[in-house]
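A reminder before we start the practical. When you read a complex entry, don't treat the lines as separate problems. The point of joint prediction is that each chain is placed relative to the others, so the output describes one connected object in space. Small molecules and nucleic acid strands, if listed, are placed in the same frame. In the example below there are two entries. Take a minute to note the order of the lines before looking further.
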Amino acid sequence: MNSGRLHVDIADPHRIGAVPRGKAHGGRAGTMLRAAVVAAVVGALALLGWGVVRPDENRASFLAGRPARDFTFTTFEGRTVTLSELRGRPVVLNFYASWCLACRDEAGVLESGWRTYGPRGAVFIGLAVRDDREAAVAFARRYGKTYLLGPDAHGRVGLDYGLFGVPETVFISPDGVIADKVVGPVTPEILARRLEPWL
Amino acid sequence: MIARTGVAAAVLGLLLGLSPPCSTRAWAGSGGAPAALPQAAGADHGAAEAALSDPRPQAAEPELRPLDAAGEARASSLEARLKCPVCRTQSVRESPSFLALEMRTRIREMIAAGRTDGEILDWFAARYGDDILLEPRKRGFGLAAWILPAAAILAGGVLLARRARDRAAPPPAPELTPEERDRVERELKLRGA
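Here is the predicted structure of the whole assembly.
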């Protein structure tokens, strides 16, 4: 009222005067929206991180519990072998190659495994993957292999068993179900753990 | 904060994209591609030993069966939709690995045998898991990959539209009590209206 100048005594700036921008929707809704966006981004990043660090070794495990797909092959000695005819006996199906270093490590393990568990009913099969016939035979001779060995012609059986590389070993139960696939060389412990319960 | 997380995500994505591609040796198990032999106990062959013996697949490369134009187009499309199992970043079409070559051979056989695209993709997924599909399945968890980007763009659009509207519209006039109204009137009159 003094000197005729406009003088509004603003007691509550939120009631009289401009509403600050950004608060138009109410602070609470804005905060919740922001929290939701942050949560969504953090969640997506967490998923991405999990996908990056997730260990690979379990990627073969989805084969476990599935029926083993049948196949027939001819051994290097000319004998025809069909998987389904081996029903009733556990089968160790090993994929190897003469050009594979890790296969040299496990060559002795498989042969001694065959000598231990073969007489008790287990069947050992070694399929040479993408290998020259002579090289695969020479490899078998060099390591004194005596179990069923033959070529995996055109990688057919390998693809059917979801082969990533060599060596890989599939354990097939006496009733023809895939129990496990080991990626990399097998050890005597792995053979014992898998085969003993079946024999 | 949101912009910063976005940058972090972009950098992470770039790193993923830069992870080493596949080589013909990926099939060899001992050839330096960790994907081939993730946890090979006792298989700690150094690069030196690998280089010395230079293990290489010895079989001749299989010939790819030629198809008619439509078949070739389908084969090419299927190869691009399947991930090379021993590579992290390449499709079967791009990968020089032997496994990818065998998969290409098998794809062509199945096309020649009259199988549908869906059957062929299912065939590989049954053996290598859904991870092998470069396009996630349009069901289950894979559906998220199809829906989330569109949903995010939609939500962003809605947010932007709301913002633009708030900017355009003046803030609502504050409600005045009768006393305040009287006072404003009085002050305006005093100002000489």
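Discuss with your neighbour: Chain B has seven helices and no strands. What might explain this?
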